[in-house]
Amino acid sequence: MLSKELTQALNEQVGHELSAHNHYLAVAVYFAKRSLDGWADFFFRQAEEERGHAMKIVRFLLDNDVAPYIPEAKEARPQYADAAAAVESAVKAEQTVTAQFEAIMAIAQKENDYRALPLLQWFLNEQIEEEATASKLLDIVKSGINLFQAQDYLPAPHAAGEAEAGAEA
Predict the structure, then answer these.
(1) Is the predicted pLDDT of residue 163 greater than 80, yes or no?
(2) Contact indicator for 21, 50 with CB cutoff of 8 Å
(3) Cα torsion 15, 20, 21, 23: sign
(4) What is the CATH number of the domain that holds 51?
(5) Domain total of the chain
(6) What is the rounded CA–CA span in Å between residue 59 and residue 152?
(7) What letter would DSSP give residue 159?
């Protein structure tokens, strides 16, 4: 049985993941409004991946006989000074999510919750990739390359299938 503290943290993380979904939708819209369809598509996929992460946590809670609740997701507006600011917001968002999962991992470790540890380790491993990808995107934008040409250099979605498969498990 999951502790009350861990259950609360996981439920809150569902809200954070849904807020990340909204954030990436806003970044995608920013790029779509500038006819940068490759960039928009990348961030639309990222938004779906974040939704998949929320579902993975919800299913984990259900599988452990915990009734999840769905926190309100934060509103996100596609208003950025420029492409670098939009991508910088993604880097900062991923760093925040990493810190959130590290805090939840600390709770699970303190409580010796061997059910939650593998789930949380999966998310932390995912965050390593997410932060690296966001940083690479920022490097591309800051390089000064034409963003239309840069669309050819965007990373392939690394975990879209994994997020969906993990949500189904």
Answers:
(1) no
(2) yes
(3) positive
(4) 1.20.1260.10
(5) 1
(6) 36
(7) S
